[in-house]
Write a structure and sequence with these properties.
Elements: H1 8-18, E1 46-49, H2 56-62, H3 66-70, E2 74-80, E3 82-85, H4 89-102, E4 108-111, E5 123-126, E6 133-136, H5 150-159, H6 163-174, E7 183-188, H7 190-193, E8 197-200, H8 215-220, H9 226-237, H10 248-256, H11 260-268, H12 275-278, H13 283-286, H14 295-300, H15 321-326, H16 342-352, E9 382-385, E10 389-395, E11 405-411, E12 414-420, E13 423-425, H17 432-435, H18 441-449, E14 453-462, H19 466-471, E15 473-477, E16 485-488, E17 492-494, E18 497-499, E19 508-514, H20 523-535, H21 539-554, H22 561-564, E20 565-577, H23 595-599, E21 606-608, H24 619-634
Parallel strand pairs: 1-20, 2-12, 3-4, 3-13, 4-9, 7-15, 13-21
Antiparallel strand pairs: 5-6, 7-8, 10-11, 11-12, 14-19, 14-20, 15-16, 16-19, 17-18
Helix pairs in contact: 4-16, 4-24, 5-24
Amino acid sequence: MHRAINRRDFLNGVAVGLGVLGPGFLRHADAAAQDSTGYYPPALTGLRGSHPGSFEVAHTLRDGTFWSTAGNPVETGDSYDLAVVGAGISGLAAAYFFRAHAGASARILILDNHDDFGGHAKRNEFLPQGRLLLANGGTWAIESPFPYSNEARGLMDELGIDPVQLHAKSAKATNGHALEALEPAVFFDKETFGQDRLVAGLPRARRAHGRSLSWKEFLAKTPLSEDARRDIERLEEAKVDYLEALDSDVKKDRLSRMSYKDFLLNLVKVHPDVIPFYQTRPHDLFGAGIDAVNALDCWAMEYPGFQGMNLAPGGTPRMGYTPRGEATEKPEYFFHYPDGNASIARMLVRSLIPASAPGNNAEDIVAAKFDYSKLDTAAAPIRIRLSSTVVRARHVGDPASAKEVEIAYARDKRVFNVRAKGVVLACWNMAIPYLCEELPDKQKEALKYGVKIPLVYTTVAINNWKPMHKLGVGMVSAPAMYHTTVNPEQPTTIGDYHVAPKSPDDPVLLRMLRTPCKPGLSERDQHRVGHVDLLSTSFETFERKIRDQLVRIYGGGGFDPARDINAITVNRWPHGYAYEYNYLFDPEWPEGQAPCEIARKRFGRIAIANSDAAAAAYTDAAMDQAWRAVQELLAV
């Protein structure tokens, strides 16, 4: 268990942490490396996401200490038609929309504090046994609770992305892959449930083919108390109306005002031993447990307990954005690229800077190798400058009449000034008040309201999946462990990328999710606790926790972390996905007065675009906000 892993996962983690540069390794903080031979961030393992070097400058700006040591900015004399702060999907889409209006000669500068573009839509690459395997470092798929708008759908169409067609084609090509035979399972840890036990055949995740266990059969194999087993079976299968005397609208209102935990304890009247089994189920979507998610939202997400309550279809204003959309009929529009929505970011970059990558369609983008030295060249009208943290954006003169905005950014321990006729702040809302001090106080407060969801997307490349095959388990829910899910990356065939394991000897990727939070607090306060947790956790701690968890889950199948792990990438996002309003804790604002609506108002020649501006953590929301921001600037 404690033998060293003398491979890329450990070496890259140490290389990043110590800032050394060995053969094949890159330093996060070395901004000049963007133009150097071999610079290729997707291949980095170790600690990614908000990696060392990406956030420290912003934190000194927040703490009020940056300008005391920064020195005077270097006046570059550079001027642009548009400057974009943030190279995530919203920022890249803003550049795309602006160019469509201004023409191919429009000069656009895109600045980002990370060492790679894409924002949360990051790409992770692995080479176990010399085979290229891809994973998402953030945004997982093209999906949305609501239909894509005309603007977002139009952008997807222009890029040539047809999710329905791509999904059908990949599903057909990978049908019958070997991993399909593996059963979903639950791992009960001894710290919470009294003993370590892996139980396969989770009924709610049963597959369309083959036999799966009934709830009675499944629960009989668990270490749960007799009271818990009885009440879980009743919760999952009984059709009871717990608010029988009320009509559907009143029921929905009542359910929206209680947490799912309270619903279970006070209406369904389950034994308290049931709660740990469900506590972390909402983590992957809400970043908090059942104590901080209302029961009506859980009904929309098809949690158990509502099957006999005769609730009418459709959402209500007191539902969160995602559950309200899930309760709404909509056409299918889904596809999971092997690197998640990083492929969309890559297609936007290739469109903006054609020299950066070969190819011309939605399939060849997956295997396309990007040349990062082409992202920031003097001859190109559009430039993407990485490892550049914007520290100030202010109008040159009175914001009401100014013709330019001055942007200062920190790079290589120096500060540089550039100017632009317009600016799109496509960074995180909570950073904007610190870099744009001239904003009205009311807008600054609104920008600080949403607290982004802290989360970790960990990917572990393993040399083979023999232990999983021996145990017969695939997806594992571990409701009380450090990572709450472990899931083999789904096979995908697209373009020249073909990954569908045929044998247990083939390498696979394991995707793990961690969402740190503190039950009992409001959702936003839980996220604040999670921010501190993630920023204070080293890669070595993550590695130790990952190895311990995997050997406890798969040890019965012979899993040996030192032998079987090829690489580890921990995508740490202390400030992860946009906060969606939660009406257990948030007020019901009048139309136009929600914090995101106040926060995104144009100020002079500065517009704001990001998923925070929609209070919705989805790619189409980021695109919609980009389109709005550009239209606002064009109207100035």
